[in-house]
């Protein structure tokens, strides 16, 4: 009888101890949660105090004058250095917008077909085909639709032309003139660019004004001229 009461007493004591421990843990957790809540509130307050002002709080530029309005309109197109240059896709899209506006791909192909004889009559034909196929992996007529280089939209370096054939460098230099409608007196160069769908001969040597070159073209022309030996 005594043993049964002892056992019952021990069981009751253990239950009481577990209950007290559980309550203590609950209280501890509640205290920790309250402390964490206080920390979060303080962090949010500090973040709000040091946050960058909203855009509407900043001073807006004055576009009321004609001069400032012109500057604002030119900002998206302005490129001042290598860090601000367009991506290859952007350059590609801008080139097509400039030279093939409102033309379908079928119409561009038709231009290529009509000018096919010029391509084969140029002494540069073999070298340029080899370059497009073996260096750039292009086996279709893309080489006659796109330029060799986007030299009016990107600053190139000497490293960009490392291992590039001298024929390609020579044509890349003249491509800067061709883009602006220069009429070439050299028959081989004339035949090559006449085979390009984007080329439109407009200005003779006497009428051509190189002030049309932008900063990209001026720098790239200087570089290509030094390499075209």
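-> sequence recovered:
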């Amino acid at each position: 009888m005594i043993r049964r009461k002892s056992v019952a007493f021990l069981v009751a004591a253990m239950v009481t101890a577990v209950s007290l421990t559980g309550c203590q843990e609950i209280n501890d957790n509640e205290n920790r949660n309250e402390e964490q809540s206080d920390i979060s509130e303080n962090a949010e307050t500090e973040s709000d105090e040091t946050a960058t002002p909203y855009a509407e709080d900043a001073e807006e530029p004055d576009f009321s004058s004609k001069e400032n309005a012109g500057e604002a309109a030119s900002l998206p197109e302005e490129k001042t250095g290598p860090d601000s240059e367009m991506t290859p896709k952007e350059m590609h899209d801008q080139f097509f917008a400039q030279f093939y506006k409102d033309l379908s791909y079928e119409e561009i192909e038709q231009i290529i077909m009509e000018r096919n004889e010029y391509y084969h009559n140029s002494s540069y034909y073999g070298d340029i085909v080899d370059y497009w196929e073996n260096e750039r992996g292009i086996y279709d007529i893309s080489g006659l639709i796109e330029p060799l280089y986007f030299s009016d939209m990107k600053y190139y370096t000497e490293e960009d032309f490392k291992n590039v054939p001298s024929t390609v460098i020579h044509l890349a230099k003249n491509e800067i003139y061709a883009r602006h409608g220069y009429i070439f007196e050299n028959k081989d160069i004339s035949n090559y660019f006449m085979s390009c769908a984007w080329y439109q001969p407009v200005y003779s040597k006497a009428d051509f004004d190189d002030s049309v070159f932008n900063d990209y073209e001026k720098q790239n022309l200087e570089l290509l001229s030094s390499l075209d030996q």
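The chain has ten helices and no strands.
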